Amino acid sequence: MSRNRLLVIVSVFSAIFVTLATEGCSQKYAHAPARRDVPSYKELAYPPLGDLRIPDVKRLKLANGMQLFLLEDHELPVINMSAMIRTGSIYEPADKIGLASITGTVMRTGGTTTKTGDEIDEALESIAASVETDIGLNFGSASMFVFKEDLDMGLALLADVLRNPAFAQDKIELAKMQQRSLISRRNDDPGEIVYREFNKLIYGPRSVYARQAEYATIDNITRDDLVAFHGKFYHPNNIMLAVWGDFDMEQMIARLQKAFGEWEKTDIEIPAVPSVQYEFRPTVNLARKDDIDQACILLGHIGGLMSDPDYFTLQVMTRALFLRVYKEVRSREGLAYAVHAYYGSEFDHPGVFEGFCQTKSKSTVYAIRAIVSEVRKITASEISDKELALAKEWILNSFVFNFDTKGKIVNRLMTYEYFGYPADFLQKTKENVEKATKADVLRVARKHLQPDKVQILVVGRPDDFDEPLSVLGPVSEIDITIPPPKR
């Protein structure tokens, strides 16, 4: 019997069992008298979060420089792999924006020097496995999922895709077509518009952290560009590989050595991560979109780095501010369909502090003032004991889900290594959040928030706003017209 057929049978019987069990429970308790001695949920008491026991991840480096992170997990007969490659769209030329993304896509879809992309698809489907590749802003990625007994085939395919992509021309054209389609639709969603254009306000329109692909930059990309981009970054001494699943440690190391050991390392010069220059200043900006009857609002300024000593206390401050904004702007005032506030911090470049709101057009300026007012209040006086407790409780209760799977544990360790953070960075969250005080929250709010120097961006139809945006300051209208493709 094939594995796929067996899985279907198991799934069917599982569904029948769950249905019968549920019906049985329903019949058993259908006529049970209501309990009157059950306490209110508000009276329930929970013990404090205990110390977490993190399994040891084995770390080693192959002779060619590839770094490995391995963690055994014998719960299911499957094996996962996840790679990080030091590359990213931050390194693509300004006249070829989209090159990194297309390279990451066609590495997989375009096949290798020995197998077409379609042949790889068929091979993976036959064993219910997957191999994927991608390149994002500041790292490339590759992943593999396979059943234990099919490890050799899955590993061979992953190694072949990483080492020997063919970059088939038809798949390049397909990827470019998909990019052009994304460009043509990028003004459909006001939420996409507001975040895209706000990043340009924060980082600058030509910054690698805010620039966008255009028809012209996609048209400039050739197959030679993909080959050169891959050849520059894809070498074993520029790759980290995490492996977790049902395997024997020594046997896995031997298999990885066999798959990647002959791949020779190369001297690589990786450019420095581009820096960010920011000047705090208040601005008011409008992206006109006349086909919607609501306003999409984003306001804020530059954020910080996760390496900042204030990072953990800022998480408490962020949560307290979110609770206030949600309570006042959405619940009490009833102004917003969606609202949040967030102080963003990134691994290798400053994040963004933002207040976000979607509201009806007739509440636009009123909602902006309400959000700014809450930002100003949190920098003026200490939060309450209840707010501090709620903020900490939310962070710590969600904190445990960083460790609920072996995959999260090993991938997070690899990510910290990639960005140069200590291995126990996440574990420090608990102790630093627990010891944060109201005075600490006020200190970091005053240090990192500047409510009088926020940049404001509104996407919507200004004729319907409750007041002209000019009451908030001089208005700059942002042109979101998509440059047409060349004939």
In short:
By secondary structure, the chain is α/β, with parallel strands linked by helices. It has two domains: 58-260, Metalloenzyme, LuxS/M16 peptidase-like (Cytochrome Bc1 Complex, Chain A, domain 1); 283-477, Cytochrome Bc1 Complex, Chain A, domain 1, CATH 3.30.830.10. The chain has 15 helices and 13 strands.
Please specify the SSE layout and strand pairing.
Layout: H1 3-29, E1 58-61, E2 67-72, E3 78-85, H2 99-109, H3 117-126, E4 130-135, E5 140-147, H4 151-163, H5 169-184, H6 190-203, H7 215-219, H8 223-233, E6 239-245, H9 249-260, E7 283-288, E8 294-302, E9 304-305, H10 311-332, E10 336-346, E11 350-360, H11 364-378, H12 385-399, H13 406-419, H14 427-434, H15 438-448, E12 455-460, E13 475-477
Parallel strand pairs: 2-6, 7-12, 7-13, 9-10
Antiparallel strand pairs: 1-2, 3-5, 3-6, 4-5, 8-11, 8-12, 10-11
Task: Write structural notes for this entry.
The chain contains 15 helices and 13 strands. It is an alpha/beta fold. It has 2 domains: 58-260, Metalloenzyme, LuxS/M16 peptidase-like (Cytochrome Bc1 Complex, Chain A, domain 1, 2-Layer Sandwich); 283-477, Cytochrome Bc1 Complex, Chain A, domain 1, CATH 3.30.830.10. It has a 7-stranded mixed beta sheet with strand order 9-10-11-8-12-7-13, with helices on both faces. It has a 6-stranded mixed beta sheet with strand order 1-2-6-3-5-4, with helices on both faces. A hairpin with a 3-residue loop joins strand 10 (336-346) and strand 11. Helix 2 (99-109) packs across helix 5 (169-184) and helix 10 (311-332) crosses helix 15 (438-448). It is globular, with a radius of gyration of 26 Å.
